[in-house]
Design a protein that fits this description.
Blueprint: H1 2-17, H2 20-41, E1 44-45, H3 47-56, E2 64-69, E3 76-77, H4 80-92, E4 97-101, E5 108-109, E6 114-118, H5 128-134, E7 140-141, E8 149-153, H6 156-160, H7 175-181, E9 185-189, H8 202-205, E10 217-223, E11 226-232, H9 248-254, E12 258-263, E13 266-272, H10 273-285
Helix pairs in contact: 3-4, 4-5
The protein binds coenzyme A.
Length: about 290
């Protein structure tokens, strides 16, 4: 925990003082070095090793689980992203539900003068595991040009339903609300609160004290060859400068809503959606949000 806190503060300093293009080069180098180091020095992890770690972290048959992840930080994984996805599916079984972020950058089409979101084709930037999952057969995807989720399992169709009609990406009547109501287990693999998107649920569920959303804008959605216009909102760009989700790490620990386990070379953070959102609501009542941080 202390080690990862120090790494985070170093990252924050790099972000502040190093130009963006240089940051990208540094990140690529770090990634390559990490991959080579894992290949040479660490044990190769197979699906069964991953299943063992997931079970130890409390994953069970029939669970509903939402996963934000970094494949590279786990170590050297035999069969890569597929092994991680299969490990989840084999434990939760056919009545469980596996959910992963298929978030995407807004894609502006100059010809049509509009953002375009293609449910089948628009790729996600949330990593190799969700991108591999998104492309699997029978995986459903919700319609949101910025914060779409993918799901597989018994309630997948029900889960992804209605995102396109929501007031904002994190609305209670869309997939994010279901993560809360269905009390999904949140698995953060090798990532921290920066990747814990359900933390935005309170921005819809409460009288949130900070203005976070833009006005609605039009998006052309292409779904199975059919086109339709939907209206969406996104986060205000100006929030980036004073947003620090990792202030939540200490609250998650002191409120006892997060457990940290190990998976290969990295940490596995586990939260229950209801406990986590209730903690976030309490913080909002105390006027503590991720946007106040300096
Ligand atoms: C950005 C992010 C995905 C980068 O993590 P990463 O581990 O570097 O990248 P991925 O998860 O895509 O994994 C691919 C990397 O794993 C490594 N890799 C490749 N094969 C591998 C294997 N068999 N076993 C282990 N690692 C492997 C490589 O370094 C590869 O990078 P490359 O594609 O550039 O070669 C991660 O830091 C993150 O933030 N994840 C959460 C995203 C999210 O959910 N965000 C929500 C809020 S916006």
């Amino acid at each position: 925990m202390e080690k990862s806190r120090q790494a985070r503060s170093l990252k924050e300093r790099i972000k502040k003082y190093v130009p963006f293009l240089a940051q990208i080069q540094i990140y690529k180098l770090v990634k390559k070095t990490r991959f080579l180091r894992h290949k040479i020095s660490s044990k190769i992890l197979g699906k069964e090793d991953i299943k063992k770690a997931f079970r130890q972290a409390g994953l069970k048959k029939n669970d509903i689980v939402v996963v934000h992840s970094s494949l590279g930080r786990i170590g050297h994984v035999k069969n890569g992203a597929d092994a991680v996805i299969d490990a989840f599916l084999e434990i939760i079984g056919k009545n469980g539900l596996l959910i992963m972020p298929a978030f995407s950058a807004l894609n502006y089409d100059k010809k049509r003068k509009m953002h375009v979101f293609d449910v089948k084709k628009t790729p996600t930037y949330t990593g190799a595991i969700p991108e591999t999952f998104r492309k699997r057969e029978n995986v459903k995807r919700s319609i949101s040009p910025t914060h779409s989720y993918c799901a597989f399992g018994r309630r997948a169709s029900e889960f992804v339903r209605n995102h396109e009609n929501c007031d904002n990406p994190f609305a209670m009547n869309g997939p994010f609300g279901k993560i809360y109501r269905w009390n999904a287990k949140i698995f953060l693999i090798g990532v921290d609160q920066l990747a814990n998107t359900p933390l935005h649920i309170v921005e819809d569920k409460t009288e949130f004290p900070v203005k976070v959303f833009t006005d609605k804008f039009k998006v052309l959605v292409i779904d199975d060859g059919k086109e339709k216009i939907v209206k969406a909102r996104k986060h205000l760009d100006s929030l980036r400068r004073h947003r620090d989700p990792n202030i939540l790490e200490k609250y998650c620990m002191s409120y006892g809503v997060m457990k940290i386990h190990r998976l290969g070379s990295t940490e596995l953070r586990i939260l229950n959606a209801k406990d986590f959102v209730h903690m976030m609501e309490e913080l909002v009542r105390k006027n503590i949000t991720i946007y106040h941080a300096k």
